[in-house]
Design goal:
Blueprint (H helix, E strand, L loop, with lengths): L2 H17 L22 E8 L4 H18 L3 E8 L1 H9 L5 E3 L2 H11 L6 E7 L2 E3 L1 E2 L1 E6 L15 E4 L5 H13 L9 E4 L5 H8 L5 E5 L2 H7 L8 E3 L17 E2 L2 E4 L5 H12 L6 H6 L3 E3 L5 H10 L12 H7 L1 H38 L2 H10 L4 E7 L6 E4 L4 H4 L3 H4 L12 H15 L6 E9 L5 E12 L5 E10 L1 H15 L9 H18 L2 E9 L2 H8 L1 H16 L7 E6 L2 E10 L2 H20 L2 E3 L2 E3 L3 E8 L7 H17 L5 E3 L2 H23 L2 E9 L5 E12 L3 E3 L1 H9 L3 H22 L6 E4 L2 H4 L4 H12 L6 E5 L8 H14 L2 E7 L5 H5 L6 E4 L1 H5 L5 H16 L3 E5 L4 H8 L5 E3 L7 E2 H10 L6
Parallel strand pairs: 1-2, 1-3, 8-9, 8-10, 25-26, 28-30, 30-31, 31-32, 32-33, 33-34, 34-35
Antiparallel strand pairs: 3-13, 4-5, 4-13, 4-14, 6-12, 7-10, 7-11, 15-16, 15-19, 17-18, 18-19, 20-22, 20-25, 21-22, 23-24, 27-28, 27-36, 28-29
Helix pairs in contact: 1-8, 3-4, 5-10, 19-20, 23-24, 23-25, 24-25, 25-27
Length: 938
């Protein structure tokens, strides 16, 4: 559809909305009719909601008023920038004529002051795409494993700019309500105020567990490098078709432009026409920071949202008068009223007796020691004991609950004796601290409570930890009359804390320091080495082929072997060195002070490595059976740079270890500077690529696939990276890095989502398009891959039968039965499968008869020289023969010359793909040309 056709359709829809189809809701009051007379030279006030400083808002929207003055003659438009409360007062007083505000505020003003149906809806530009809807985002820190779903926010602290904000509170509250969490009853709401950046700061700083912001805020902060996207994750994330960002809520129409009921109907129509005809691209829209206005959206969803949340104007229950009730239920109400009256009289009399009794009881309790009996009954036999001290010298006990003996070892009678001193129970090492804190507590008249942990020594010599919560009863001048303490034995808790500390810093299997403690000691050693100008070394050790031992002999034998290795390593090092178990069969040895220069330090570290390897080659006796192992070691000396961190050192040692293992194992390797530069480059690409996925820097390219006659039969979807400073980054730079991390999953998800959106758009245009998409083994093996892709296709409306997933033979190495089951599920949906780079694996033909495959793709390495190299020609002909026998399509990639194409045409029906028929192009350009002239790749 051309731009002209789209414009005509938009105009027709706009006029139909304005003239013939009032909104069928309580929101849709019609503007009063008028002849148009009397509006010449009239002043019309346009009120815009200010959610940022007024000068900033005025500067932004002044261009809109200027535009209306130019396009609507006879009326002078004036801009009024108002806060919410100011706009509500102005509409109530009819001091303004037109309103541009956020949708839920529009609903409120409409119910209270009778605004017109929306004349137009705002169109924003998000992620380079014009959108007339927006949504809300719920996010938390990436390390919050306890928050994975909306229901997990129950009892948490959530940050939002204000409860009046639609995109940064109300949308999210509505979604939580659907999940059974009602705000603010079920979670504490922290209102940060504008801007929404404050919400992000509150979550990252730990002030809040989760945050609510409007879509686009996180992406904007990330794009301006004010937010590391890796530090956050979305809760309840959803992908919405034709919307550039992930959301946690439904999408709602953007800000409406509406008129007050007193505005002349002719002026309303002319303003609506001006808004809808505003150019979507140009200086005006750029200056306003929008993409223009469009036909009004459906704001009934906002109405329903506010109703369910019981927010203004629906915060009150509907009125129902007594007269109505009396007319309908006169006799039942009379009888019920008499019955209720009698019950109330009885209840009042009863309550009067109870209150009189309670007053007397309270007076007696305040004047006597009867409360002590209540406490004794409450805590008898329980874990909490009660003590009451009189404010006399040596603080004698006035009361001790009967269960006190279980904690202190003394009977209650003995502790109440005049010669008993409580201080004698406190551990000598804690006594001075406790006495000092109690004296400080008593010296502060305003303080009511004191709490502390300290040790006591029982008569049998056993030491126990107590938690003591003490309250002071003070007179009118703040002087303490007595102290009442509640004490609890928390010795088991202290032991548990010590155990937790042990688990946090020591490996449970070997008893060696774990990775956390290693990193702490590495930081200390690094700082000490810099001060004293000495070199240290970190050795990473890996047991060669340990997986074979573990798989063949069982995990019990494997664990016993690792424990024995740890014990032997601990006996080989000096007192100041650290041996740690980093992960699995990997150990670390931190060597302090290995020399003053690099040569000396390198020799010392290598000597220790050789000593370790030799010692570990000696047989281990594991449950009566000898085991002999070899090890690989990676060595990194440090400090190497002034800004070096413990993570840098560990990464360099790990790189050296990989080098040793790649060389065959059973050897030690030093980290070399060149290796470090390569690793640093990979890590930089990984970090930037992670940002690129979130920040909208990825682009989808398409390359045509044609039949032997040159007719277009489909295309392959390819991902490209539009780097903000380095331009278009080739796939060979970032795909290998993504393959080594989970980023390949995110990349695959993005490509599949974009491909599905394109297929749906082409199908709606009446020109179905088949697309091929590469899917990595790591992505395919994800537990939820099948339901995810099923939901994606359903959400976008893409036809599964037009999608081909290209897989490689690496997918079949592990768990073939699971792979076949997943492929069969997807094939049942209509999805096709193609084996990419066919012929380069070692066992491709063995899999074909078991897999639901529809297509094979000949690798470009065979296609390039097949017309001139008999060996490559034989490989291609063999693949074609197997494919024909099994009724499989064949795609030949890398077709770049006419000679290659002639060779393939002479050998049957082969789909061609390569530069001869078209280079990969941006999907928008490729799709636009194809829709204009389908079937022509160029």
């Amino acid at each position: 559809m051309t731009d002209v056709a789209r414009g005509v359709r938009r105009w027709l829809a706009a006029w139909l909305v304005l003239w013939l189809a009032p909104w069928p809701m309580p929101l849709a009051w019609s503007a009063p009719a008028g002849s148009g007379a009397g509006i010449e030279n009239r002043v019309s006030r346009v009120a815009v909601l200010a959610y940022r400083p007024k000068p900033e808002t005025a500067a932004r929207w002044r261009g809109l008023v200027d535009y209306l003055n130019q396009t609507v003659p006879g009326t002078r438009f004036v801009l009024e920038v108002l806060h919410m409360d100011e706009m509500e007062a102005a509409t109530a007083a009819s001091d303004i004529d037109f309103v541009l505000t956020q949708p839920s505020h529009y609903v409120l003003l409409t119910y209270r002051n009778g605004l017109s149906s929306p004349l137009a809806s705002l169109v924003n530009r998000e992620g380079g795409i014009a959108v007339s809807q927006f949504g809300g985002v719920i996010f938390t820190r990436a390390d919050r494993a306890d928050i994975a779903s909306l229901a997990d926010l129950r009892g948490k602290r959530v940050a939002a700019v204000a409860r009046t904000s639609l995109g940064a509170y109300q949308m999210q509250a509505f979604e939580l309500l659907q999940a059974g969490v009602r705000l603010p009853e079920d979670a504490f709401v922290l209102e940060t105020g504008q801007p929404q950046d404050k919400v992000v700061e509150a979550v990252l700083s730990g002030q809040a567990d989760a945050g609510f912001v409007r879509t686009g805020v996180l992406e904007d902060l990330s794009g301006r490098e004010r937010l590391d996207a890796r530090r956050i994750k979305l809760v309840g994330a959803q992908w919405r078709p034709d919307f550039p960002f992930m959301v946690s809520t439904r999408l709602y129409p953007e800000w409406p432009f509406a008129a007050m009921p007193h505005v002349d109907a002719d002026l309303v129509r002319r303003v609506a026409a001006a808004l809808l005809s505003m150019p979507h691209d140009g200086e005006l829209s750029d200056a306003l920071g929008i993409a223009g206005f469009t036909v009004p959206g459906d704001y009934r969803a906002i109405d329903e949202l506010l109703r369910q949340l019981r927010l203004p104007p629906f915060e009150r229950t509907p009125e129902f008068t007594f007269a109505d009730a009396w007319t309908r239920w006169r006799w039942p109400l009379t009888a019920g009223s008499l019955a209720v009256g009698a019950l109330l009289l009885i209840a009042v009399a009863r309550l009067s007796v109870i209150n009189r009794h309670l007053r007397r009881s309270r007076q007696r309790l305040e004047q006597s020691e009867a409360a002590l009996q209540t406490e004794r009954d409450l805590f008898m036999g329980g874990p909490v004991a009660v003590l009451v001290w009189r404010m006399e010298p040596n603080w004698p006990l006035a009361y001790a609950s009967p269960n006190i003996e279980a904690i202190f070892g003394y009977p209650a009678e003995r502790m109440r004796a005049p010669d008993f001193r409580y201080a004698h129970c406190i551990h000598p090492d804690d006594l001075a601290r406790v006495v000092g804190e109690v004296e400080g507590f008593l010296a502060e008249p305003a303080r009511k409570t004191w709490e502390q942990r300290y040790r006591i020594v029982r008569p049998d010599g056993v030491t126990r930890w107590l938690y003591d919560f003490t309250m002071a009863e003070r007179d009118g001048r703040g002087h303490a009359r007595r102290l009442r303490g509640y004490v609890m034995d928390v010795s088991d808790q202290k032991e548990a804390e010590a155990r937790i500390h042990l688990l946090a810093f020591f490996d449970d299997l070997t008893g060696l320091p774990n990775r956390s403690l290693l990193m702490d000691r590495l930081a200390q050693t690094l700082a000490s080495g810099r001060r004293q100008h000495r070199l240290e070394a970190l050795l990473l050790l890996n047991v060669d082929r340990f997986k074979i031992i573990n798989d063949a002999r069982g995990r019990g034998i494997g664990d016993a072997l690792l424990k024995a290795v740890g014990e032997r390593l601990a006996g080989l090092t000096r007192e100041g060195d650290t041996v740690a178990r980093v992960a699995g069969d990997e150990f670390a040895i931190l060597l302090a002070d290995v020399g003053q220069n690099r040569d000396q330090a390198g020799r010392q570290a290598l000597s220790v490595a050789e000593k370790i390897q030799a010692a570990l080659k000696m047989p281990f006796d594991i449950r009566g059976e000898p085991f002999t192992i070899t090890t690989s070691l990676g060595i990194a000396l440090f400090p190497d740079r002034p800004d070096e961190t413990p993570d840098d050192i560990l990464r360099r040692a790990d790189t050296a270890l990989h080098r040793a293992k790649a060389a065959g194992g059973n050897q030690a390797a030093f980290f070399e500077t060149g290796m470090g530069e390569s690793v640093a480059r990979s890590f930089r690409i990984e970090a930037e690529l992670r940002q690129a996925i979130v920040g909208g820097e990825l682009r989808l390219f398409l390359q045509p696939q044609v039949d032997t006659d040159g007719r277009l039969v489909g295309a392959e979807a390819l991902v490209r990276w539009q780097h903000p400073t380095r331009g278009l980054v080739p796939p060979s730079t970032f795909i290998p890095v993504a393959e080594e991390t989970d980023l390949i999953v995110d990349l695959g998800a993005w490509v599949l989502a974009e491909a599905s959106r394109i297929m749906a758009a082409a199908n709606m245009a009446g020109l179905p398009l088949r697309l091929s998409v590469n899917i990595s083994p790591r992505h395919f093996r994800q537990a939820g891959f099948v339901p995810w892709i099923r939901d994606l296709l359903a959400a976008t409306g893409a036809d599964p039968s037009h999608l081909t997933l290209e897989i490689t033979e690496g997918l079949f190495i592990d768990n073939l039965n699971d792979v076949i089951a997943k492929m069969s599920e997807l094939t049942a949906l209509g999805i096709h499968f193609s084996i990419d780079d066919f012929g380069t694996g070692y066992s491709s033909l063995a899999y074909l008869k078991r897999l639901p495959i529809h297509e094979v793709k000949i690798d470009r390495a065979f296609v390039q020289d097949a017309h001139a190299n008999p060996g490559d020609a034989a490989v291609v002909e063999t693949i074609l023969a197997v494919a024909a026998h099994m009724h499989l399509r064949v795609v030949a990639e890398g077709v770049e010359t006419e000679a290659q194409a002639v060779f393939l045409r002479g050998r049957g029906s082969v789909i061609h793909q390569g530069y001869l028929y078209g280079h990969p192009e941006p999907s928008e350009r490729w799709l636009g040309r194809w829709l204009a002239a389908p079937g022509k790749p160029d």
